[in-house]
Amino acid sequence: MNAPIDVSFFPRNAKPLTSYRPYWAKRFGVAPYLPMSRAEMEQLGWDSCDVVLVTGDAYVDHPSFGMAVIGRVLEAQGFRVGIIAQPDWHSADAFRALGKPNLFWGVTAGNMDSMINRYTADRKIRSDDAYTPGDVGGKRPDRAAVVYSQRCREAYKDVPIVLGGIEGSLRRIAHYDYWSDKVRRSIVVDSKCDILLYGNAERALVEVAHRIARREPVEQITDVRGTAFVRRASEPGWFEIDSTEVDEPGRVEEHINPYMTTSEQAAAQGQSCAQDGATDSVASSAGSISAAGQKGLQTVQIVPNPALPGKGRSGRALPPRDRTVIRLPSYEQVKADPVLYAHANRVLHLETNPGNARALVQAHGEGATARDVWLNPPPIPLTTAEMDWVFGLPYARNPGSPRFQCNK
Q: How far apart are CA 97 and CA 112, in angstroms?
């Protein structure tokens, strides 16, 4: 740990990244590059990989590439990490290149959402890709996180799949998909991953990796912050509240065209243009009051004491936040009702503060096939010293293979 002072402002009840006992494979030392082939594994003296990372980007061993960071963080914890970059997704053969992972797959679409990477805003296919050698497009599939997860499952069915990256993070609940113009299910359901790590995942990843290494079943890893997964029923000891206790669904106001004049805006809203003059008269009267020396009224906001039991919109006392889960409208509901869709997304964004966020749950399916997507609160951010440690790891800061010697 390099930094002598931690200047971050979150409660530090999280286990430090460097406090874990290294995995036994630490004895192999640091690899110049994460291996991408069996031959490179043999040069390092490895007979297998503990973790195999799959990414839609070229592998450049530099901290600006997410999978390089993840790989080096896992390596520093003692794991043997291989990487499969931009594999041929048309069959599972390319996903068997490094053999069967001992612990789990780590899957990401890359530094960008794969749909944004492949298509313009007009839904036309892009001819370039900033994360591919030569700036060549077409090296990753649509919805790469889902496709890669399916191919990993096809290659080795019994190996857990840990999904991460921006594509997984932004699609963790039912969401509107611009490219298909419809509401899609959570990516946790579509990809059939065992666990999703969203946001800055270094802390969650290290915890999950060590617990899988201790042979803890991945389906029992349900208490790690920054994770999402599918479950059939809530655990005992949790208090479930409806999302309407947090936010009241209401009519969705249509956005005003910023290029319309004030008169055009008033006409579009069915109002009279005479309001312009009324506004001027109000302003002039306010000026006269100020000139007369009278003080305007001020709104007093009463802030509740956080030490006292909180109350929801219904007036009922709320249970402890750290044991509370908020029930969002189901996938079927948000798909059918734009108001509930907006409400669900507002609640999702309200519960993103690592200091006080609560768990969320959203049902997908009905009847006997119903499943809940459970989202734990966001991870506690890294300290200054932990950030220095992550970005001070021995990156080669060069492409990891002649195949990825970038021209641009």
A: 24
Burial grade of 92 (CB within 10 A; 0-12, 13-18, 19 or more): middle
Measured between alpha carbons, how far is residue 358 from residues 168, 321, 379 in Å?
Answer: 20, 6, 12
- Which helix H or strand E contains 375, and what residues bound it? strand 371-375
Amino acid at 384: T
CA distance 34 to 81: 6
Tokens 């370039």 locate to: 128
Q: How many CB atoms lie within 10 A of CB 63?
A: 15
pTM: 0.81
Cα separation, 134 vs 405, whole angstroms: 9
Fill in the amino acid letter for 91.
Answer: S
Tokens representing residue 238 in the block: 């949790």
- Model confidence over 56-107: pLDDT tens digits? 999 999 999 999 999 999 999 999 999 999 999 999 999 999 999 999 999 9
Q: pLDDT for 99-149, tens place per residue?
A: 999 999 999 999 889 999 899 999 999 888 888 888 787 789 999 999 999
N-to-C CA span, the chain: 35
Q: HEC states along 120-172?
A: CCCCCECCCCCCCHHHCCCCCCCCHHHHHHHHHHHHCCCCCEEECCHHHHHCC
Cα gap 168→81, rounded to integer Å: 21
Domains and CATH numbers, the chain: 17-223 (3.40.50.2300), 227-251+310-378 (no CATH)
Phi-psi map region of 52: left, alpha, beta (phi>0 left; psi -120 to 50 alpha): beta
List, as own/partner pairs, every contact residues 389-392 make where C-beta atoms lie below 8 angstroms and the sequence separation is at least 24, other chains included: 389/1, 389/2, 389/17, 389/18, 390/17, 390/63, 390/69, 390/73, 390/202, 391/63, 391/69, 392/2
